[in-house]
């Protein structure tokens, strides 16, 4: 951030009175521009013994597999965002959303929410940011070609939980992702 | 948003190619400035049969009672944000955080996460944005003087769930708050 989005003047870094952290402050209108984490929402769509994955056609991690997920937008709910991303990336419709993983990625200031969901039908196809969409059983999952640590975690947890038949919320703090974060 | 935070040029509203919504686009460097929902994180601190509330000393809703909560910051986890806000607003320490309410407020582009938590001790006091901190039993809660709909919901749910002895995650979409949203 170099310029004030309200008045166009230059920005300085300083600690406001009564605060304890450096903020982006406008040198002219003195507005304090706070930076806030972003929410990534998506689905883990299930069809019989398989799950739906998308092969990314955009950076980061183009060519790697992921769950349909993306940045939540203003004016929508987290569930709405998960449904929208599933429709946009996989042209797929899902039902019975249940919050399944909630992952804080503090180093990249993101919070990811993945909903377990039932895939409604087999009428899916690659969206604009997707190269391919496919259903995978546990044995078929391309574990070495998954795009993100959070997606790896969600899939591992799902297949473990499926053996027990219960799918509790997994609340994870990821301090140091071993694969790139969602973007 | 009037000016580009990267180059200082003026912003126009337009639908980028391949998109379906109006975005804030820089007229000079063509950067697309996306707007994203903010996360509010906080705690519902419990001490024996009582809960801790804070009386706000700042707008919005100055003079009304709330749970310690506030905007999550970059570089922290949701739990960290809830702990920090509880310390900042009530000078209180809590343990055993468990995600209890997750509320999407689409009309104001906020997602609120309230963690049920155990208050560690009675050494609490009003922080900078707080006029008073107090413990209230169910009968004593100032229901008509609560600051926000989400706080009302969380407290109602807590006292109901306490009768059953189970505290599941409540995932709520609030389309039209009857009280002002958190801010
Ligand atoms: Zn300014
Ligand atoms: Zn620009």
From TrEMBL, chains A, B:
Keywords: Hydrolase. Residues 36-159 form the Nudix hydrolase domain. Signal peptide: none annotated. GO terms for molecular function: hydrolase activity. Pfam families: NUDIX, Zn_ribbon_Nudix. Its cofactor is Mg(2+). The keyword Oxidoreductase does not apply. The keyword Hydrolase applies. It comes from the Bacteria. Coiled coil: none annotated. PANTHER family: NUDIX HYDROLASE 23, NUDIX HYDROLASE 23, CHLOROPLASTIC. This is NUDIX hydrolase. It comes from Amphritea balenae.
């Amino acid at each position: 951030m170099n310029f004030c989005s309200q008045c166009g003047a230059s920005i300085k870094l300083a600690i406001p009175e009564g605060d304890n952290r450096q903020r982006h402050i406008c040198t002219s209108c003195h507005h304090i521009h706070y930076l806030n984490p972003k929410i990534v929402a998506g689905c883990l769509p299930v069809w019989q013994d398989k799950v739906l994955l998308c092969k990314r056609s955009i950076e980061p991690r183009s060519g790697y597999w992921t769950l349909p997920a993306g940045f939540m937008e203003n004016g929508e709910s987290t569930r709405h965002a998960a449904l929208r991303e599933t429709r946009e990336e996989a042209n797929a419709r899902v039902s019975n959303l249940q919050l399944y993983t909630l992952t804080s990625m503090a180093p990249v200031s993101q919070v990811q929410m993945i909903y377990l969901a039932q895939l409604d039908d087999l009428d899916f196809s690659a969206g604009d940011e997707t190269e391919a969409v496919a259903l995978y059983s546990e044995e078929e999952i391309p574990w070495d070609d998954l795009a993100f640590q959070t997606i790896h975690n969600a899939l591992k947890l799902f297949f473990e939980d499926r053996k027990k038949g219960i799918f509790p919320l997994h609340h994870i703090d990821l301090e140091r992702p071993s694969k790139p974060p969602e973007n």
